[in-house]
Structure formats: structure tokens, C-alpha cells
Specification:
With 364 residues, the protein is an alpha/beta fold. The strands form three sheets. Strands 7, 8, 9, 10, 11, 12, 13, 14 and 15 form a nine-stranded mixed sheet that branches. Strands 1-2-3 form a three-stranded mixed sheet. The protein has a three-stranded mixed sheet with strand order 4-5-6. Helix 3 links the parallel strand 4 and strand 5. The protein starts with 12 loop residues before the first strand and ends with a strand.
Length: 364
């Protein structure tokens, strides 16, 4: 939990030499007062309970010791300190310096927000995995049957016929192997999401051009054995930038977007491009869609029908968040664009970029 945003530098204040009576109204209104001495140095926190325990006339005689909070303290430890101190606010220190106070109500709201977010994330991953596993048998059998079938065929043909057939058989075996590997990767990812574990990232340095070339290689393979008979078109120029990110996760996300687009494209044509804009790497996939597409996919719950290997748009969304990216689905009449973005911070000397940001949005 990030405590910096909870720290208040402005708070109800009183001084050690003041009478309790003079500060009573302020104390009643706020349930606490931050006490300073004449040199404005922090001296403690006064609560109504302190006055009941030490009923004196001067504030400094009433103040009792309160535990302090450090910036790197766990939420569990802070919760304990608020509970046992019975204080509505606690001081925050860094290397002995007083930074301000954190109010109990602010801390509880932030804690509840974090818990709700974790619960929502866990529920989402549970739904994704349940629907994925419902289709896993088919997704495993299909590529395996293709590979086994062609292996049997290769074992039966003679040497001369092999060279005549290899150009048609080997790409299909390669495609089926890639599909099988994709299913395994999806299953591993979903298992991590289900258990609440963080998804392992393999951060490497690469260029925007190289990732686009690798996507083109993937397109060349699936075009040979694409049941949707879709035509994929990629732009010829790419942004000249080098950045750090998980290359495999990017490919995993983009391939899912492409296969989703190929199923939804009305004219069976999908366009893919890449650019650098406003300190972001943008990968965009555009295709024609029918009139009902905008209404159908305005609610992300409708994506559940697409939850099987290769077109799992919700899994792509989850992975986008893990690599600190952003995804938007923009629909306009019969045109749809899926925008996959990596916000980056560029270093002009090294021309390297570091990603940040996250989420999935839908726009019309």
C-alpha cells in the first residue's frame, strides 16, 4: 500500500502550553489534535481518551504516547497500531523526521479499496479460468490430432514423395505446435491468476520493428492454416525506438487480438499497424464489423462467449494489465479498432523506453 498519498501535512493543531478548555471545541470536532511546541516541533497527538485518562488543565500534561508509522510498514501492522492506540490519527516519520499524520478513516477507506480491487481481480481470473477449462479438452485435442495425423502420414510416405509434400505438411505441423504451445501458456497464466500469484515477466530489450517482424512471421504461419481464411495486412514502416518489456507477453496478447479480429471481421480482412505517439508505443488492429458489434461488445461481460484459446480477449486484457499496458476497443459504425498501448518514458541518450500504465477500456 502506498502511504505517501494518505499523509496529511495540514491538520487540526494545538500547542503544548494551551489549556485543554481553549482547544476543546476543535478536539470535539476532529476527534484528535496534533500537538506542537512553541518552536512548532511535533510533540504528540491528543485524543478525547487522553483527557479522560489524564484530566489536566494544560495540553502537554494530557498527551499520551502514540505509536508512529513508517513509510514501508505493512497494512497489517498499521491496522494493529490504530486498533490498540484507539487514536483517530497517527504520526508518520522517515529517518526521524516528522512527515505528517495519517487519519484512521483515510487508512480504512484505502484498505477497503485495495481489498475490493483484489477481490474483483480474483473473481475475474476465476471466471476466465472456469470458461477456459470448459473448452480445454477441444483446444488440446485439435492441434495434437493434426500433429499426430501428419506424423503418421510422414512415416508412411517414401523419400521422394516427402520432398513433394513437405511444403504443405511441415507448415501445418508448425502451426499446430504453436497452437498447442499457446494453450499451455494460457493455462499456466490462468493458473497464476487463479492462485493470486504474480505473472512472471521476462524483461528484455528489443525494438518496435523487431516485434512487428515477429508478428508478421506469426501471421505468415497462421495464414497457411487459417479456418477463417482471413487476409492480414501490416504496415511497412515502424517507429525507430528500443524499449524494455516482456516480448513473449506482447506476442501472446497481440496474437489473441488478431485471432479475435479474424473471427469478427465481416470482410475477412485485418489490418495491423504500429506507431509512437505521445510517449506511447501503439499497436492497433482494425477490421470491418457488423452493425450489432458495437452494441454486443459495449459490455465486457459479452466477451465470455469468446473465452477459448486463441480468441480469449479477457485473458489478453488481464495480461495487458500485468505488463503495465492499456487496451481500448473503439467501435464506429461498421469499423472496429483494438488499440494496444505501451506508455513509455524515453531516454534521449540511449533511446530506450520503460513502460508504465494499465487497464482496458471500450469507446464508441
Amino acid at each position: 500500500m502506498d502511504l505517501i498519498q494518505l499523509i496529511k501535512s495540514e491538520y487540526p493543531k494545538a500547542y503544548t502550553h494551551q489549556s485543554v478548555l481553549s482547544a476543546s471545541n476543535l478536539l470535539i470536532d476532529n476527534n484528535y489534535l496534533v500537538i506542537h511546541d512553541e518552536s512548532d516541533k511535533y510533540m504528540g497527538i491528543l485524543t478525547p481518551i487522553d483527557i479522560l485518562i489524564h484530566p489536566h488543565k494544560i495540553i502537554e500534561d494530557c498527551v499520551t504516547d502514540k505509536p508512529s508509522i513508517s513509510l514501508h510498514e505493512s497494512w497489517y501492522s498499521i491496522t494493529d497500531k490504530f486498533y490498540f492506540s484507539k487514536s483517530y490519527a497517527l504520526p508518520v516519520f522517515k529517518s526521524g523526521d516528522f512527515l505528517g499524520i495519517i487519519e484512521k478513516n483515510d487508512f480504512n477507506k484505502k484498505l477497503k479499496s485495495n481489498i475490493d480491487s483484489l477481490h474483483k481481480s480474483n473473481q475475474e481470473s476465476t471466471n476466465i479460468k472456469a470458461i477456459f477449462l470448459k473448452n480445454i479438452s477441444h483446444e488440446f485435442r485439435t492441434p495434437l490430432n493434426i500433429m499426430v495425423g501428419f506424423m503418421d502420414l510422414l512415416s508412411e510416405i517414401d523419400f521422394e514423395n516427402f520432398y513433394e509434400l513437405k511444403d504443405s505438411i511441415i507448415p501445418k505441423i508448425k502451426y499446430s505446435s504453436k497452437k498447442f504451445l499457446d494453450v499451455l501458456n494460457d493455462l499456466i497464466t490462468l493458473s497464476s491468476l487463479e492462485s493470486g500469484e504474480s505473472v512472471n515477466l521476462e524483461i528484455t530489450e528489443f525494438s518496435a520493428e523487431s516485434i512487428c517482424i515477429e508478428i508478421q512471421d506469426y501471421i505468415n504461419v497462421i495464414s497457411l492454416y487459417d479456418q477463417n481464411k482471413c487476409i492480414y495486412k501490416m504496415q511497412d514502416q515502424y517507429p525507430d525506438v528500443i524499449f524494455f518489456q516482456d516480448r513473449n507477453k506482447i506476442l501472446q496478447i497481440v496474437t489473441k487480438i488478431l485471432e479475435f479480429a479474424s473471427r469478427k471481421s465481416t470482410n475477412k480482412e485485418v489490418n495491423l499497424g504500429c506507431n509512437l505517439q505521445n510517449a506511447s508505443i501503439n499497436l492497433f488492429v482494425t477490421f470491418n464489423s457488423d452493425n450489432n458489434f458495437n452494441k454486443e461488445y459495449s459490455d465486457l461481460a459479452n466477451y465470455e462467449d469468446e473465452l477459448f484459446a486463441g480468441t480469449n480477449i479477457l485473458l489478453a486484457k488481464a495480461l495487458t494489465g500485468y505488463i503495465n499496458g492499456n487496451m481500448e476497443i473503439i467501435t464506429n459504425d461498421n469499423n472496429t479498432e483494438i488499440l494496444f498501448t505501451f506508455p513509455v518514458s524515453l531516454n534521449q541518450k540511449s533511446k530506450k523506453a520503460t513502460p508504465f500504465g494499465g487497464g482496458l477500456q471500450h469507446k464508441t
